[in-house]
TrEMBL record:
It comes from the Bacteria. It comes from Pseudarcicella hirudinis. This is Glycosidase. The keyword Hydrolase applies. Keywords: Glycosidase, Hydrolase.
Amino acid sequence: MKKIINFIGFGLLFFALISGETRAQSIQKVEPVNWWTGMKNPKLQLLVYGKDISAFEVSANYPGVKIEGVQKVESPNYLFINLTIAPETRAGKFMLEFRKTVQVKNGKKKAVDQIVKISQPYELKVRDKKPQEITSKDLIYQILPDRFANGDPSNDKFPDMADPLADRSNPFLRHGGDLQGIIQHLDYVQELGATALWLNPVLENNQFQTNEGGSMRSSYHGYHFTDLYNVDKRLGGNDTYKKLIDAAHEKGIKIIQDAIYNHIASNHWMMKDLPMKSWINQWDTYTNTTYRDEPLIDILHGSASDKKIMESGWFVPALPDLNNKNELVGNYLIQHALWTVEFFGIDGWRIDTYMYNDLEFMNRCNEALLQEYPDMFITGENSVSNIVSQAYLSRNNFNVPFKSNLPSANDFVLSNAISDALNNEFGWNKGFNRIYSTLASDMIYQDANRNMIFLDNHDIDRFYSVIKEDLSKFKMGLGFLLTTRGVPQIYYGTEILTKNFKDPSDAEVRKDFPGGWAGDKENKFLAAGRNAKENEAFDFVKTLANFRKGSSAITTGKLMQFTPESGIYVYFRYDNNQTIMVILNQNKDEKVVESSRFSERTTGFTRARNVITKTDLTDLKTIRVAGMSVTVLELQK
């Protein structure tokens, strides 16, 4: 009887030990969280995170899925599993089997080998997303979600998040704008004439407030990622993001997601347990980037150490700098980008802090996206002031060792030229000659018509303030933006004359859109809520934006510009079906433009239709243009 009791006791002890071991062993994350059959690249690398998971062997029994290898790293809590998914593989669920041997001692101190197993489900889905092409036919409307409209006040704040506050009276805290608010105002976007939305980052920012300039600030802007596979629940989460994309697509509006490959937030889940030291760029002492683009392009005279600091120095102390030279890091980021397109159905990417990444990695990332989605719009933020740097960091015609494959540049050089042109009197290198000379250098791009062009965005002063709140200059700037080459982008509120400088902080150019919150005194989403000047500005943009939708000359035609003379700048957009003549007059008084100078493009045309005023011009020989104005004419025979 004693032996039986001892045997039972040992059995219970053994069961407890094994059960305890099994409970301790759990998988917390597998990323990507799912994948798809039919991808052109059959390779998939899974990041698996769980306590001491590296001690396990891994297997999978599913037709078409083969484990090619498993990589262990410095942290015992990670495994990287390399899979190949054969082209004929069917969608479905299967188990990743994790197995290891443990030794359990019996009552006589003898060790007994026992097997611990973990089964982790994984799913391959049917690939069904077809991103819509974003081109110069589109008009992009940029929205900072937290500051646009609050469609669901119940998700404004959560006590379990690192930053649990929301307060509209504080410019540095979250204000409660969300994706549901954008859904509720898609008709406004459509009315304006925009055909694509670029949203500032929507991914989880479970980040503590940081002290910037003596003030505690939240990451309401979205650039402090803490989880790549979850949309921030204060914006509505993954389900609402899908709902927004579907609703936008139903209205013919495309979605551009804001990507960051350069850094994560200090409260990112990985920062609590890095896979390896080299997952981020480490320095003996904190090293900030210099923010200088010259070390990247100065292939004749540049310093290697300057280039390293530029690329690998941290953007700010609260944002650990990802080492995307590390192949595992690169794979992780690239697969997330691919997953996002397939999971959510987005149509394009705007890449933040592009030039601070390893540029070879960026080429690899762009190539992976374009392999799966050949027409995908990918535009990169390189906030530079010279056209050589801007072209070098995108597809160009330079004969240099490194060749960027970035399809589209955020055209900061042209943006600066427009503001300078409108704020300075006409001269040899001033006024409209700034724009003229900038466009004259377009030959260095492979295709300048892919550049995303803009007047302002969330990082720079509001355009209306830059031009000293001059409505005539506003119309000239927007008139040029909507008729020149490139893919135009308008920052939310610009169309209703939203103003402010970045003084004392960026928050001043990120004000709430009036009418986006219940109880707002003004609702500028409606004509009745806008004053006369705001309606004049809105109607100007609306008229021209909706006209360009059907204008083959503006959206896909060629551009011919003529040397500005006496404060008059004339250019044409044209193809075999249509010719558009644009006249910008920088003089304060009316001028007469003799069309004979532009006979290369006007020959054969006898009259014109003014696109903005919708009036007819019966004589093209002499064209009267008002002072400080833009005139857009559709030439007719």
